[in-house]
Design a protein that fits this description.
Elements: E1 4-9, H1 10-29, E2 42-45, H2 65-69, E3 78-82, E4 86-88, E5 91-92, E6 98-102, E7 109-111, E8 123-125, E9 131-135, E10 141-146, E11 151-152, E12 154-155, E13 158-160, E14 166-168, E15 186-190, E16 195-199, H3 204-207, E17 211-215, E18 220-221, E19 226-232, E20 235-239, E21 244-255, E22 258-262, E23 266-268, E24 271-272, E25 277-289, E26 292-306, E27 320-327, E28 330-339, E29 341-343, E30 352-359, E31 362-366, E32 383-384, E33 391-398, E34 401-405, E35 410-412, E36 427-429, E37 432-436, E38 442-444, E39 467-468, E40 471-476
Parallel strand pairs: 1-40, 2-3, 3-6, 4-7, 5-18, 6-19, 7-20, 12-15, 19-21, 20-22, 21-25, 22-26, 25-26, 25-27, 26-28, 26-29, 27-30, 28-31, 28-32, 30-33, 31-34, 33-36, 34-37, 35-38, 36-39, 37-40
Antiparallel strand pairs: 8-9, 9-16, 10-11, 10-17, 13-14, 15-16, 23-24
Length: 477
C-alpha cells in the first residue's frame, strides 16, 4: 500500500503554501478568454452599457442583470461580461448558454451586494453608543466585508428557545437586539425594520473605502431543470446564500472562476448557510475545475439532497447524482471544500451517487476564517459526507493536498449502520494530508465494514488496496 507517515514544520508548510497554493491561484486568475464557437449568438454586458441597446456587439452592450433575465436566450448562445467591471444583482441561468468574459483585465465581478456601503451619509447614529445603522432592504444579511476582505463583521443572532424566549445564540443570555452589540464590527440585522446595526467607534463609511453586504439570494440560480450550462472566467463575491445555487441540473460546467466571501445568511430558524456551487437533488455531468474559493461559510462544492419520505414520494421515485468531477481547484477557508450527501434512501430504492471524482485539488484551512463564525465549529473537514445513506459507486479521491482543519481532516463515512448497499468506499490514493500532531485525521470507513471510527494515523492502513500511496504529514512546531 506504501502509505507514509512523516512530519513537516511551520517553515516547510509556508514554502508549500507559497510555492504551490499561491502559484495555482495566480494561474486561475490569469486564465484567458475562451474561444467562442463560430457563428454563435453572443450577447455582451458592460458597466458602460445600456439596457436599450441590442446587446449583440461590444459596441452596443447591455448593462444590468434584469435585461439578461428578461430575454429568452438561444441554446448555444453566449453571455459575455466585460472584464474589469462590477455587476450587481441576481442572474437566472438558461438552458444551453455559456456565461463568460470578454475584453482585458481582471475577471468580471458579479456581486449579490447591492451597493458599496462606504458612504458616510448613509450611516446614522442609533440610540446605543457606537452603534450605527444602515437602511437596506433584504431578507437577511450574512455578513459585511470591509476593504475587499481586510475584515468581516460578526453576526449577532437570536436563538428562540423551546419556551419561545429569544436568547443571544453566543452568550445564551436574553436577546435584547442592538444592545447586544458591544464589540467592534459586530452587527445585527433587523430586517423587519430594513436596518442593519453595526458597532464602530467611528462612522463606518469614513472608516472604510469599501463595505459590501452578503445579501440573501443566489448570484446564479435557475427556474427549473437546467441543461448544458457553462460558467467560465467570472468572479462571484459577496452573496449571503449560494453563489451558484441550482437543482435538477445536467451538464453544468463551472471553470476558471473565483469565488470569495460567500454565505452567512439565515436559511431557516437560526441556521446559517451558503455554498459556492451547489446542485440539489438530481445531477449528471457536474464539473467544477480550475476554480479558486476563499472565505466560504459552508461548502465550496457540493451535490446534496434529502429524499422525501417513502410514503410521500411519487411511485417509482429515485434520485441520481452522476458523473461528478471536482478537479484542479484551490480552496482556502471554507468549512467544507467538498460536501456531499443523499439522506433518507429506503431499502430497494436505486437512488445514489454514481461516478464521483475529487482529484488534483489544493484544500487549505478548513473551518478557518469566515466559517469560524459557525456555531458547529467541531464539524469542519476537507471532505464531508454526513454518513450518506445511499449507494455510492466509482468514487475516487486522488492526488489532492489537504492541509489543516479546525476539526477532522476528512470525514468520508459513506453508509449508515445497517444499510446494506455493498462497498461504497472510495479509491483513496496519492493524497497528501497535513495536520498538526495530535489532531484528528478523521473518518475514512464504512460502517458495514468497520464498526469503529478511527481517529489516528493508522486509518491509512484500514482499507486495503483502495487506500495507497498517501502521505500523512504532521505539522510540528
Amino acid at each position: 500500500m506504501d502509505n507514509k507517515i512523516g512530519y513537516v514544520d511551520a517553515m516547510q508548510l509556508e514554502v508549500i503554501k507559497n510555492n504551490v497554493l499561491d502559484e495555482r491561484v495566480a494561474q486561475i486568475r490569469s486564465t484567458p478568454n475562451m474561444d467562442i464557437a463560430e457563428g454563435a449568438v453572443v450577447y455582451y454586458v458592460s458597466p458602460d452599457g445600456d439596457d436599450a441597446n441590442s446587446g449583440t456587439s461590444p459596441e452596443s452592450p447591455w448593462k444590468t442583470p434584469s435585461r439578461i433575465n428578461d430575454v429568452t436566450l438561444e441554446e448555444g448562445s453566449y453571455v459575455c461580461f466585460e472584464r474589469g467591471g462590477i455587476y450587481r444583482g441576481n442572474f437566472i441561468l438558461q438552458n444551453g448558454v455559456t456565461y463568460t468574459a470578454y475584453g482585458e483585465g481582471d475577471k468580471p465581478k458579479l456581486y449579490a451586494s447591492p451597493e458599496n456601503g462606504a458612504e458616510p451619509e448613509k450611516w446614522h447614529k442609533s440610540r446605543v453608543e457606537n452603534v450605527w445603522y444602515y437602511e437596506i432592504e433584504n431578507e437577511d444579511i450574512g455578513t459585511l466585508v470591509f476593504n475587499d476582505g481586510e475584515a468581516c463583521a460578526v453576526k449577532v443572532l437570536p436563538y428562540v428557545n423551546k419556551d419561545g424566549v429569544a436568547s443571544n445564540r453566543t452568550t445564551r443570555q436574553p436577546f435584547s437586539g442592538i444592545e447586544d452589540i458591544s464589540e467592534d464590527l459586530v452587527f445585527y440585522h433587523a430586517h423587519e425594520e430594513n436596518r442593519l446595526y453595526l458597532y464602530s467607534e467611528k462612522n463606518p463609511g469614513e472608516r472604510f473605502d469599501s463595505i459590501e453586504f452578503n445579501t440573501k439570494g443566489h448570484i446564479f440560480s435557475c427556474r427549473g431543470k437546467l441543461y448544458d450550462v457553462t460558467v467560465d472566467n467570472l468572479c462571484l463575491k459577496y452573496c449571503g446564500s449560494h453563489a451558484i445555487g441550482l437543482f435538477n441540473s445536467y451538464g453544468l460546467c463551472v471553470k476558471n472562476c473565483e469565488f470569495e466571501w460567500i454565505g452567512g445568511s439565515i436559511q431557516g430558524g437560526s441556521t446559517r448557510y451558503g455554498n459556492a456551487v451547489e446542485i440539489w437533488e438530481n445531477c449528471d455531468r457536474f464539473t467544477v475545475e480550475n476554480c479558486s474559493f476563499y472565505q466560504i461559510y459552508d461548502a465550496a462544492m457540493t451535490p446534496q439532497f434529502v429524499m422525501p419520505k417513502q410514503e410521500e414520494a411519487p411511485e417509482g421515485y429515485a434520485c441520481y447524482m452522476k458523473n461528478i468531477k471536482f478537479s484542479n481547484n484551490v480552496v482556502e477557508c471554507a468549512n467544507y471544500p467538498v460536501e456531499y450527501f443523499m439522506h433518507g434512501v429506503w431499502e430497494g430504492n436505486p437512488s445514489g451517487i454514481y461516478g464521483f471524482e475529487i482529484s488534483d485539488n489544493l484544500f487549505f484551512d478548513a473551518g478557518e476564517g469566515f466559517s469560524y463564525q459557525r456555531p458547529d465549529r467541531t464539524e469542519a473537514a476537507h471532505i464531508k459526507s454526513w454518513s450518506a445513506h445511499c449507494v455510492l459507486r466509482d468514487f475516487v479521491i486522488r492526488n489532492n493536498i489537504m492541509c489543516q482543519s479546525k476539526n477532522m481532516l476528512i470525514h468520508v463515512h459513506p453508509v449508515e449502520p445497517g444499510f446494506d448497499v455493498g462497498d461504497c468506499l472510495p479509491i483513496f490514493e496519492n493524497n497528501i494530508i497535513i495536520g498538526r500532531d495530535g489532531d484528528s485525521f478523521g473518518i475514512l470507513e464504512q460502517s458495514k465494514v468497520h464498526e469503529r471510527q478511527v481517529y489516528d494515523e493508522k486509518i491509512v492502513d484500514y482499507l486495503g488496496d483502495k487506500c495507497k500511496n498517501n502521505q500523512l504529514l504532521f505539522l510540528v512546531d
